[in-house]
């Protein structure tokens, strides 16, 4: 595509949230922050929970709350319907597959605040009962021999993180 544009799709099992020509997409993977521009090296990576920012060809930046997924960047010949009268070239196609993702203007802020408050209260209850919280507890919950307490802490921390992501993205959008 000309002018530094590429095809971007953000897809969940329920719907295609974004399908546009974009100038850039910014997200976080387990390897760190990532910005994809036209001509990016082919790549498959995970997407960690957080904000995804899309700068479309026209209009305002699109903000999404993404709760994990995978990103594929591929390059290939420019499709005939997009080649126009110019010489054929290479194009970049980006697909983000997410189990759960929301556009910023579709986030129910009151619900996210309630979910945050409930998760914080649950974590406080677990701490008062002597449960370890934080990264160590999350790592323990991932072990095959994890007890119900570790699993409960991990679930409460995950719920808190989802609520925080929703609130951050709603504020940014």
Can you tell me about this structure?
With 173 residues, the chain is an alpha+beta fold. The protein has 2 domains: 6-105, Sandwich (ATP Synthase, domain 1); 108-172, no CATH class. It is built from 4 helices and 9 strands. Strands 1, 2, 3, 4, 5, 6, 7, 8 and 9 form a 9-stranded mixed β-sheet that branches. Strand 5 and strand 6 form a beta hairpin. Helix 2 runs antiparallel to helix 4 and helix 3 packs across helix 4 (148-172). The longest helix is centred in the C-terminal third of the chain and has 25 residues, at 148-172. The chain is elongated. The mean pLDDT is 87.
Keywords:
elongated, nine-stranded mixed beta sheet, 173 residues, 4 helices, ATP Synthase, domain 1, alpha+beta
Task: Supply the helix-strand structural class.
Answer: alpha+beta
Number of helices: 4
Number of strands: 9
- Mean of all residue-level pLDDT scores: 87
Largest sheet: 9 strands, mixed
In the predicted model, the low-confidence regions spanning at least 5 consecutive residues are none
Proportion of helical residues:
25-40%
The first-level CATH class name of the largest domain:
Mainly Beta
CATH structural fold name of the largest domain: ATP Synthase, domain 1
The CATH architecture classification of the largest domain is: Sandwich
Order of helices and strands: EEEEEEEHEEHHH
